Automatic annotation (TrEMBL):
<keyword id="KW-0560">Oxidoreductase</keyword>
<comment type="similarity">
    <text>Belongs to the short-chain dehydrogenases/reductases (SDR) family.</text>
</comment>
<dbReference type="GO" id="GO:0016020">
    <property type="term" value="C:membrane"/>
</dbReference>
<dbReference type="InterPro" id="IPR020904">
    <property type="entry name" value="Sc_DH/Rdtase_CS"/>
</dbReference>
<protein>
    <submittedName>
        <fullName>Short chain dehydrogenase</fullName>
    </submittedName>
</protein>
<dbReference type="Pfam" id="PF00106">
    <property type="entry name" value="adh_short"/>
</dbReference>
<dbReference type="InterPro" id="IPR036291">
    <property type="entry name" value="NAD(P)-bd_dom_sf"/>
</dbReference>
<dbReference type="GO" id="GO:0016491">
    <property type="term" value="F:oxidoreductase activity"/>
</dbReference>
<dbReference type="InterPro" id="IPR002347">
    <property type="entry name" value="SDR_fam"/>
</dbReference>
Amino acid sequence: MKVLLTGATSGIGQEVARILRERGDELWVVVRDASRADPRDHAIVADLAEPLSLTVADLPEEIDAVVHSAGTITLGAIADSAQEDWESQFRINLLAPAMLTRIALPALRRAQGTVVFVNSGAGLRVSAGWSAYAASKHGLRALADGLREEEKSLRVTSIFPGRTATPMQESVHAQEGSAYDAERWIRPETVARKVVEIIDLPNDALIPEVVIRPR
Ligand SMILES: NC(=O)c1ccc[n+]([C@@H]2O[C@H](COP(=O)([O-])OP(=O)(O)OC[C@H]3O[C@@H](n4cnc5c(N)ncnc54)[C@H](OP(=O)(O)O)[C@@H]3O)[C@@H](O)[C@H]2O)c1
């Protein structure tokens, strides 16, 4: 299987990459620092906070799956929020997945592939202090829903994890001013296994949405 993946250097995306790599899949990873890419993967260097200069020529002829896992979060009340925080979250969490999907579409169509957007519980509901991140993730759900309507040959899934024990969750705790205990949250491997299951689903069916929460 040929898989294009963002966020493969950390957390959920890193676990997805590990599982796929171990079973012999071919990975194209979009990373902002080439030295962080696993040498077994094809590295595509791009900072997702910037306009994407990638073209179809950078990608394989056929792509069986795209997993959008890169993301960023800056908490803060609307009253105190800076424009640059809104912009970076919109760029990395929403605009980059949209543009990367667009570039990958010809290759995805050839393979009748699957696109998985790693969304968030914040893509379904909003808490105080989470507006900018939640707005980017609500937008990401709209992107997935629109893509599913427009590209009938593809399978498009949004997965909505609750708090997952990754560096991002550690940062969320620091921003909230609370103590971090990784044991309380979903293991990134658990979310990753679900993502792989979505990709591997027999081709007579698709899973539009999956909600996964800590017990
Ligand atoms: N952890 C949670 O509790 C949780 C819950 C729900 C949803 N999510 C979502 O799950 C996804 C994965 O999150 P995670 O927890 O695994 O986060 P993470 O451990 O912080 O990993 C984030 C990944 O995104 C990449 N990334 C960030 N900014 C980038 C940029 N400008 N250009 C290229 N790559 C960039 C990072 O690359 P570097 O290694 O170069 O920094 C890293 O690989 C995100 O979309 C997040 O919103 C997470």
